[in-house]
Write a structure and sequence with these properties.
InterPro entries: DNA_glycosylase, HhH-GPD_domain, HhH_base_excis_C, HhH_motif, MIG/MutY. This protein is mostly helical. The protein contains 15 helices and two strands. The protein is 53% helix and 2% strand.
């Protein structure tokens, strides 16, 4: 893969995303990476900018309650991410002098930080030469290197090895190459409608093979309507929009279609620590009971 062509394209065509601008800290990038997991850029950007203004350093977030963070999370989905980020902020404030570590192994010890996020922070915040692999990167490598329409099942060892083999030798170019590879998959080499005419790569194995169709298992489409996730979201909305603990009857009104599903969703929110029940039987966001 021609790294110079890809980096040149990225320098000209990269989206102007707020976490790529000057003055952004490793903490800001960590917040963006947590928010961007399974959530589109367009939904994340305005919330992220509010968070940077409100919680510019980890200790600022750590000083806020879990409920405040959950309320600010809004409609980003998968709110357990917010709780883990709040927990992570406390560790950074207490054990790391309010700074995000640069070392991948140290990052992996932080609450809520997995292999992808640790590598993304090391690369995009500190310019380290580490492979960063997400769905977009896997797709680009599958097509450009292996000639497949889509990547197979994820394999940490194989996927990181593939990305590592493509990285330029120097740190600064390697970090930019990783960002460019991800950007290419997000904007040009997309899953459903790849725009090969706009691709800066001139050595794509998939194109050379005639763009063979994907022949693997059918992709699973995640539905939302009618799921426990939707019910959980509606229950959380009641508490986010309120100003204190509420009675169970108010929560019961949000989902009358299937009361057993509603009860199951409420129990799961309690188990996950997203909400809590007071001694007198009321319900509140975590930390607000």
């Amino acid at each position: 893969m021609n790294s110079s062509a890809l980096i040149g394209w990225y320098e000209r065509q990269a989206r102007d995303l707020p976490w790529r601008r000057d003055g952004v800290t490793a903490w800001h990038i960590l917040m963006s990476e947590i928010m961007l997991q399974q959530t589109p850029v367009a939904r994340v950007a305005p919330i992220w900018e509010q968070w940077v203004a409100r919680w510019p350093v980890p200790s600022a977030m750590a000083a806020s309650s879990q409920g405040e963070v959950l309320r600010a999370w809004g409609k980003l989905g998968y709110p357990r991410r917010a709780l883990r980020l709040h927990e992570c902020a406390g560790v950074l404030a207490g054990d790391h002098d309010d700074m995000v570590p640069a070392d991948v192994d140290v990052l992996l010890t932080l609450p809520g930080i997995g292999a992808y996020t640790a590598r993304a922070v090391a690369c995009f915040a500190y310019g380290q030469r580490v492979p960063v692999v997400d769905t977009n990167v896997r797709r680009v490598i599958a097509r450009a290197v292996h000639g497949s329409a889509e990547p197979g099942n994820p394999s940490t060892k194989r996927d990181l090895g593939d990305a590592e083999a493509l990285l330029p030798r120097t740190r600064d170019r390697a970090a930019m190459f990783s960002a460019a590879l991800m950007e290419l998959g997000a904007t040009v080499c997309t899953a459903r409608t790849p725009d090969c005419a706009r691709c800066p790569l001139d050595d794509c194995a998939w194109v050379a093979a005639g763009r063979p169709a994907y022949t693997g298992p059918a992709r699973k489409v995640q539905k939302f309507a009618g799921t426990d996730r939707q019910v959980r979201g509606r229950l959380l909305d009641v508490l986010r929009n309120g100003h204190g603990p509420v009675e169970r009857a108010l929560l019961d009104q949000v989902w009358l279609t299937d009361t057993a599903q509603r009860d199951r969703a409420l129990d799961s929110l309690l188990v996950d620590g997203l909400i809590e029940q007071t001694d007198d039987g009321l319900f509140a966001l975590a930390g607000e009971g």
